[in-house]
Amino acid sequence: MPRDHDKDFFAKSKKKYDSDIEKLKKSQEKGPSEVKLTDAGSPKVEDILKELNLPGGKTMPSQKEQAKPKEEAKKPMIIEMKDKPHVEATYTDTHVKLVLDVDKETSAKNIDLDIAETELKLESANYELRYKFEKGVTVDSDSVKAKFSKTKH
């Protein structure tokens, strides 16, 4: 059996709910800026912001900070995909020979080649490649030789 206190609480809650529904209907007719809903049970914005640890020990952001739109990192809409050059690899007991076909390039100065112990990286305006050496091979980057041949162009 409901107690009088529960009945009273329910009646107040229903009245507030009905009132908020009416305000919501009016706001849809008038526009959102003219009508505000009440919510007595919710914490105030100021109380929530006090719990935040904002820079400089502030408890509330300044009006300038509130007015600033958040700047998102601008990402390009279209990402240009570069070709991967054809790789011909020859492994012997003591040497690794890689022949990379970069026929869209006219000069070695346009190609960035980086060789580490376990991989080769190639970048240019037209190509991009990350090649990991097979079979656990490690390369001494000081003994590497690279050659660009114009005869195939």
How is this structure best described in words?
- This protein has two domains: 4-67, no CATH class; 86-143, Immunoglobulin-like (Sandwich), CATH 2.60.40.790.
- The model has no long low-confidence stretch (mean pLDDT 77).
- It starts with a helix and ends in a 21-residue tail after the last strand.
- The protein is elongated, with a radius of gyration of 34 Å.
- It is 25% helix and 17% strand.
- The chain is α+β, with helices and mostly antiparallel strands and 153 residues long.
- A hairpin with a 4-residue loop joins β4 (119-123) and β5 (128-132).
- The strands form two sheets. Strands 3-4-5 form a three-stranded antiparallel beta sheet, with no helix packed on it. A two-stranded antiparallel sheet has the order 1-2.
- The protein is built from three helices and five strands; from the N terminus they run αααβββββ.
